[in-house]
């Protein structure tokens, strides 16, 4: 191979690499294998996280710093949100790191969502369309968008009994439309 041919091959490889668009996180097989894709069937248990952190006399900022040192971009505000909001989906690898830092089994930090009240909502085509809109609007994955909208609907709707799908959809629709109107 001549120098010119080698240069052309290298240039072609660089152009191909620059044009590569990685798949969305939830569709990335390598990310899934590495535990970087949040598991939609389990959520972080905020009470268990706070209890374990406090048992070790760690502040939210100390836990955030420990996780940052271990390679995760985590802020104090995020740790605080994990402890105060229900329904947070985190990557299994991050949950494993948190559990390790808090000297717990991973299963002690998560609860299953398999029999949760969001199943009917998730199966509704209107919710799926709202998730698509929210993901595009906020430039996030569909999984992250679904978790975000579920959390917002729970905060606004759930007051003692199981949330009703129609009411959840009304709240989410109004929220997404308001944000779309502000950002357009």
How would you describe this protein?
The chain is mainly alpha-helical and 184 residues long. The chain has two domains: 33-112, lambda repressor-like DNA-binding domains (434 Repressor (Amino-terminal Domain), Orthogonal Bundle); 119-183, no CATH class. The chain has ten helices and two strands, in the order H-H-E-H-H-H-H-E-H-H-H-H. It has a two-stranded antiparallel sheet. Helix 8 (125-138) packs parallel to helix 10 (165-183) and helix 9 crosses helix 10 (165-183). It comes from Frondihabitans sucicola. This is XRE family transcriptional regulator.
Please state the second-level CATH architecture of the largest domain.
Answer: Orthogonal Bundle
CATH class of the largest domain: Mainly Alpha
Q: What are the low-pLDDT stretches, counting only 5+ consecutive residues below 50?
A: none
Helix content: 55-70%
Provide the spatial order of strands within the biggest beta sheet: 1-2
Number of helices: 10
CATH names the topology of the largest domain as: 434 Repressor (Amino-terminal Domain)
The average pLDDT score comes to 83
N-end to C-end Cα span: 54 Å
Protein name: XRE family transcriptional regulator
Organism: Frondihabitans sucicola
TL;DR?
The chain has 184 residues and is mostly helical. The chain has helices at 3-19, 29-33, 46-55, 60-69, 76-84, 92-101, 119-123, 125-138, 142-157, 165-183; strands at 42-44, 110-112.
Write the layout of secondary structure elements.
Blueprint: H1 3-19, H2 29-33, E1 42-44, H3 46-55, H4 60-69, H5 76-84, H6 92-101, E2 110-112, H7 119-123, H8 125-138, H9 142-157, H10 165-183
